[in-house]
Structure prediction request, 375 residues.
Amino acid sequence: MDRLIHPVEATQTDFLPINGTDYVEFYVGNAKQAAHYYQTALGFQMEAYRGPETGHRESVTYVLRQDKIRFLFTTALDPDHFVAKHAHLHGDGVRDVAFWVDDATYSFAATVERGAIPVHEPITFQDEFGTVVTSAIRTYGDTIHTFVERNHYTGPFMPGFVAYQNPHFAPTSIGLKYVDHVVCNLELGEMNTYAQFYANVLGFRQLVSFDDKDISTEYTALMSKVMSNGNERIKLPINEPAEGLKKSQIEEYLIFYKGAGVQHIALATDNIIETVTAMRSRGISFLQVPEAYYDEVLDRVGQIDEDITPLRELGILVDRDDEGYLLQIFTKPVEDRPTVFYEIIQRKGARSFGKGNFKALFEAIEREQSLRGNL
Prediction:
């Protein structure tokens, strides 16, 4: 079982207060179709829009929301625009993991002083609903972190956007609540560099680490460090490949994404059985572990509240740490390139990441890699 730092202890040295994930922005080839997919398959509601109709002629952005989760899908209107080049190189992928802060100016100055590479200095956006201040810094690959200060804003998302809903289409929520963690894949040798970046520049601390003995199969292995801010509302596992007999899932991602980037986003739910059942009915495909996993899982994790039968039928995994247990499941990639996928997670006290499931999970990933001819 994993042993983690208690959040109260960690907060004492948290120089950069972060309230949570403000949004995750994807640069995509067709934002209209991507937005429709996330509404239909994942139950997101349309919240806001920006594009030529609102006076923004370079790109279009659809803002989708479900409870505390906000996803942005942006497409360029010119092939020479940076957004188009990003989508051409990486495929549909995450450009921005934005943090909600009380002071975007301070957050920018404090992190740049500690060595962050700036993307843009603080900018104030204003309209009849108030003001939003944003600033941004670089992180791994082409990914950035935007600091968003929105405490004095009551409008739809931020100035420049308009409220947007389709009166003929109102998808129902599937029970997703918030972003639990965001996982990145890095080139060999970069894990420690970016762990130090998050520690030194953003004041994060290491919650837990896994080496190739923890995350390995007969053929492949990887290493990971989980970095978190003081209140643990931001948790960022950082992965790099380890030496193995065949090509690891990290290496496959790096080949098809053309570099480092966000591998998967873990979305929390209060009822994973209902959420996964709804996702399957809407066409989402999940990784499947062998039936034998369920023959011994309760011996390993002990008593749980849920009936094992629906967990077995849906392929939901269970693990326990010192503070409770968790239930989790992973989708197959949601792009044609084997890059971005999702984890659905329900925490019943546990603060860890399912170490006891790693072997079964990564063997399932290897079976999919083999089908794609990439193992």
Q: What stands out?
A: Residues 1-12 have pLDDT under 50 and may be disordered. The domain at 8-163 is CATH 3.10.180.10 (2,3-Dihydroxybiphenyl 1,2-Dioxygenase; domain 1). The longest strand covers residues 118-127.
